[in-house]
Design a protein that fits this description.
This protein is an alpha/beta fold. The chain has helices at residues 5-12, 49-54, 99-113, and strands spanning 3-4, 15-17, 26-27, 29-31, 42-46, 77-80, 93-95. The strands form two sheets. It has a five-stranded mixed sheet, with no helix packed on it. A two-stranded antiparallel ribbon has the order 1-3.
Length: 132
Amino acid sequence: MSLTIKELHNILGGNLLDAEGKEDNVINNFENWFPFIHNKSTAYISPNKHTWRRFGRDANAKEGNEYIKKDKEDLGLIITETYVPDMKFKTPQLVINDSANTLTKLAEEMRLQYKHPVVAITGSMGKVQLEC
């Protein structure tokens, strides 16, 4: 599923900054762990400490923005609650109020775009052995 930065802004709201001339760039991957970002079609969703705790992370977890390497060129969009200054390469940033609510909005929108039924297989064991 692919969305432009402009479409993401329309869906999620917030303030779109540093995006001049990049509004039509396509985002087709979303990560909340910075080391997994390897191209400009990936958006980094940067949770704050409060959001990490809501997702069950350690209370000592760092702010998502603390993981950002400011000299990273291969980054399509930062979705954050706090603007990240001094990026070496001008990277579009969508500054939102609540990253957890933003993830929910994004999931709802993406689900609406699916035309087929969705099946979820959960649990901690046995999924690798599943055959169709």
